[in-house]
Amino acid sequence: MAEVVLKNVSKVYPNGVRAVNNINLHIKDKEFLVLVGPSGCGKSTILRMIAGLEEVSSGEIYIGERLVNNVPPKDRNIAMVFQNYALYPHMTVRQNLAFGLKLHKHPPEVIEERIKKTAEILGIFDLLDRKPRALSGGQRQRAALGRAIVRQPLVFLFDEPLSNLDAKFRVQMRAEIKKLHQQLKTTMIYVTHDQVEAMTMGERIAVIKAGTIQQISTPAFLYHNPVNKFVAGFIGSPSMNFFEGRVVEEKDKLYFQGEGIVLEVARMHTDKLRKVKGKDLILGIRPENIHLAQQAISSASSEVKGCIVRARLEIIEMMGAVTYLSFTLGGVNFNARVESSEMEGKENRPRIGEEIDLVFNSEKCHYFEKESEQAIL
After folding, report:
1. Residue 84's pLDDT band (boundaries 50, 70, 90)?
2. Adjacent-strand bridge partners of 60
């Protein structure tokens, strides 16, 4: 078993800075878990404590049911991949892959067999006799992965391994690491600040802020059911739009009223929002749930017409199949994501600087308490 369990783990530096605050985390055997959060949130510190590169201030860390707080990194049976490759420049790829195995005194035939198998998995067999300076960034990252794979560890730890690659190689390497996980069936813990990497790679994602886990779940659940405003805004690209206001009741109907915006609350949300009527709230809605009224009205019900908002179009970004539109409303900037076909070849297509009618899908709105920023729904 290669479960990794953190029980009440904290990290406090000598200057009093608390980088990690009472983390409880259970990574299942063979799971691919992603730790995601902004720079300085403590995610890399968590990874380094699991690896043994940072001392635990309090709490316990278990790898495969063994308490490893006082176990040296070399004896934890883990392998770590960094963003800077950490290859020895004077050695060939073959020598880099063999180095750790030689330190552990594996027989030459075992070393050669592991190198061969690893090179085939990563597609670097033809690169074994090259030195790192003769490799591209993607090839160096594969070699760094290979050095970890040959050790056959219980757990793989990845500390933002794709940060130094360009956009094309990042997409390619994301796919390769996921495929690698399926082949090796080994526990993997992956740290990134890129929520796109987290969403596309993780079986589960732990969202971290200021050394504390805000929420941990599958990518789909985090996207559709964020527990607070931070998770809602961090997960998703473009990020969720937010509007401040209050819920009021008129003629047995609830409305969210903010600066320049009045939306009828969907029937499915009325019971919970009636309990916070009159309190300061934050409404959140994702860009794909905001539609151009001229395309939506023809198929919209009379109820949806109460959710029409007029805003000024500021920016148009055509991204191929989809187009991102940026608007201002009552001093708030927000985004919509529409099908590019809705923008093309139409005489009345939106133009920058115009006031545009938009339809907000009220059933897809999220509501948060303003003070605590916790989700209401």
Report:
1. confident
2. 7
Neighbours of 359 (CB within 10 A): 21
316: confidence class by pLDDT, cuts 50, 70, 90: very high
Token pair listed for 349: 């297509």
pLDDT higher than threshold 70 for residue 171: yes
Rounded Cα gap, residues 314 and 124, in angstroms: 48
Q: Does domain 4-234 have CATH number 2.40.128.120?
A: no
Right CATH for 241-369 from 1.20.1090.10, 2.40.50.100, 2.40.320.10, 2.60.40.3210: 2.40.50.100
Q: What is the mean pLDDT of the chain?
A: 91
Residue 166's Cβ-side half-sphere holds a number of Cα atoms within 13 Å equal to 4
Nearest CA among 202, 174, 188 for reference residue 79:
188
Cα–Cα distance for residue pair 175/19, rounded to 1 Å: 31
Q: Where are the domains of the chain?
A: 4-234, 241-369
Q: Which two tokens stand for residue 261?
A: 């915006």
pLDDT of residue 86: 77
Strand order across the 332-339 sheet? 290-292, 355-360, 308-318, 322-329, 332-339
Q: Where are the strands (E) in 13-55, listed by range?
A: 18-27, 32-36
Angle at 107 (CA atoms; ends 104, 108), nearest 5 degrees? 115
Say if residue 238 is preceded by a cis peptide, omega within 30 of 0: yes
Torsion of CA 198, 199, 201, 205, to 10 degrees: 60
**DSSP codes, 317-354:** EE-SSEEEEEEEETTEEEEEEEEGGGTTT-TT---TT-
- CB contact at 8 A, 49 and 76: no
Give the list of residues 6+ apart from residue 189 with CB closer than 8 angstroms, or none: 4, 27, 33, 34, 35, 47, 50, 155, 156, 157, 158
Helix and strand element counts for the chain (H, E): 10, 20
Least reliable range by pLDDT among 100-104, 105-109, 357-361: 100-104
Spatial CB neighbours of 1, under 8 Å, sequence gap ≥ 6: 29, 64, 65
Give the H or E element holding residue 209.
strand 204-209
